[in-house]
């Protein structure tokens, strides 16, 4: 318990409790996310009654996915026992109809005038069978992140942000919990385990709730939007980033067909 409490205090102090006053952080907030100090003063409290336009869609992979390969599980008996037939790479997961899993979809531009409440429930990232679950996770700025260890082996959580404060923390027992938070938008933040090098995860931190992660068939559903013009960005660990311009009207039902790659 002493270990967990110390980890909670360290990670929260490095995240939402700290002020990001570096030039890189300020530049990113102002020019990429529209989240600089002056922008915050101009915001209005979010009115959910204005959100009536439904947006859903799918992200597909055009072309052929790279072959999945076996990960080198090394001498960790727990991980080898958890995957007797081997653990295969998960950086590109494509469904039968070409749907691409684990794409982070979010509204990059168009919501700068609003101030959104921070969710009270934490986002959760677990370590299960020597994998981060989920592999891609979204949360809002200031929202608590609970990191669990469900494995009976030691893991390590190394966050590598550019804008936010990073951390590098071991979790030595099953049932261990770390708490972290990120106060600045950043899409996205890689996480790695320095003990098991094949363990990776990615976190998208955004200043609003309008984001989603694609399912196994590539589908996604965004929260309802107000009428207006938006820039939608899709982000994938292997294929990079693409943007799509979207305009919606009150009560409209929109379906987006987005894709990475070429035929």
Structure description:
The protein has 263 residues and is mainly beta. The chain has one domain: Cupredoxins -  blue copper proteins (Immunoglobulin-like). Helices cover 13% and strands 39% of the residues. It has helices at residues 2-14, 23-32, 37-41, 77-82, and strands spanning 44-45, 53-62, 104-109, 114-115, 123-128, 131-133, 136-140, 145-148, 155-159, 167-171, 177-180, 186-192, 200-206, 211-213, 219-225, 228-236, 240-248, 253-261. The strands form five sheets. A five-stranded mixed beta sheet has the order 7-13-12-9-10. Strands 14-3-16-17 form a four-stranded antiparallel beta sheet, with no helix packed on it. Strands 6-5-8-11 form a four-stranded mixed beta sheet. The model is unreliable at 1-10 and 17-32 (pLDDT under 50).
Average of pLDDT: 86
Name of the top-level CATH class? Mainly Beta
Count of individual domains? 1
How many distinct helices?
4
Strand tally, please? 18
The CATH topology is what? Immunoglobulin-like
Helicity, as a percent range = 10-25%
CATH superfamily grouping: Cupredoxins -  blue copper proteins
Q: Separation of termini?
A: 54 Å
Major β-sheet profile:
5 strands, mixed
- CATH architectural type: Sandwich
Order of secondary-structure elements: HHHEEHEEEEEEEEEEEEEEEE
What's the structural blueprint in terms of helices and strands?
Layout: H1 2-14, H2 23-32, H3 37-41, E1 44-45, E2 53-62, H4 77-82, E3 104-109, E4 114-115, E5 123-128, E6 131-133, E7 136-140, E8 145-148, E9 155-159, E10 167-171, E11 177-180, E12 186-192, E13 200-206, E14 211-213, E15 219-225, E16 228-236, E17 240-248, E18 253-261
Parallel strand pairs: 1-4, 2-18, 5-8, 7-13
Antiparallel strand pairs: 2-15, 3-14, 3-16, 5-6, 8-11, 9-10, 9-12, 12-13, 16-17
